[in-house]
């Protein structure tokens, strides 16, 4: 199935706020963070997507009547996801999600400032088949 069809099924959403995490520069989280910070390949928005095989860091742009175009900036096999949990913080980070990876690193970002709907959807998508032992919320 083409990537765009997977994203329509599993969903893609804008990552709001900054991306944080833990791990060394060559960890999965370190490489994800560098890809997110590199403006050379970025279009209009920084997004994430989940397929049945990968967690994706995407950039997107609106093509008008042609719909949205996506480009993959970084990808993580779902088998590298150890767990995922919604870890909201007070004041505009209620939709924060932490993804722990099998190399011991962690990626965290906010899927929404007030709403937790996207965070719950991301946790559910990554906790399904294709991952390690995810923990939803």
Describe it.
With 137 residues, the protein is an alpha+beta fold. It has a single domain (3-127), classed as Pleckstrin-homology domain (PH domain)/Phosphotyrosine-binding domain (PTB) (PH-domain like, Roll). The chain is 21% helix and 38% strand. The chain has 3 helices and 8 strands. The protein has helices spanning 3-10, 28-37, 117-127; strands at 12-14, 16-22, 45-50, 54-62, 68-77, 81-86, 96-101, 106-110. The strands form 2 sheets. The chain has a 4-stranded antiparallel beta sheet. Strands 2-8-7-6 form a 4-stranded antiparallel beta sheet. A hairpin with a 3-residue loop joins strand 3 (45-50) and strand 4. The longest helix has 11 residues, at 117-127. It is globular. Residues 131-137 have low confidence and may be disordered.
Determine the CATH topology.
Answer: PH-domain like
Structural class: alpha+beta
Strand order of the largest sheet: 1-3-4-5
Proper CATH architecture: Roll
CATH class descriptor name? Mainly Beta
Q: Note poorly predicted spans.
A: 131-137
Number of strands: 8
Quote the beta fraction. 35-45%
Kindly report the name of the CATH homologous superfamily: Pleckstrin-homology domain (PH domain)/Phosphotyrosine-binding domain (PTB)
Radius of gyration: 14 Å
Tertiary shape: globular
Q: What is the count of DSSP helices, taking H or I runs of 4+ residues?
A: 3
What sequence of helices (H) and strands (E) makes up the elements?
A: HEEHEEEEEEH
Q: Quick check: average pLDDT?
A: 74
Total domains, how many?
1
- Helix fraction bin: 10-25%
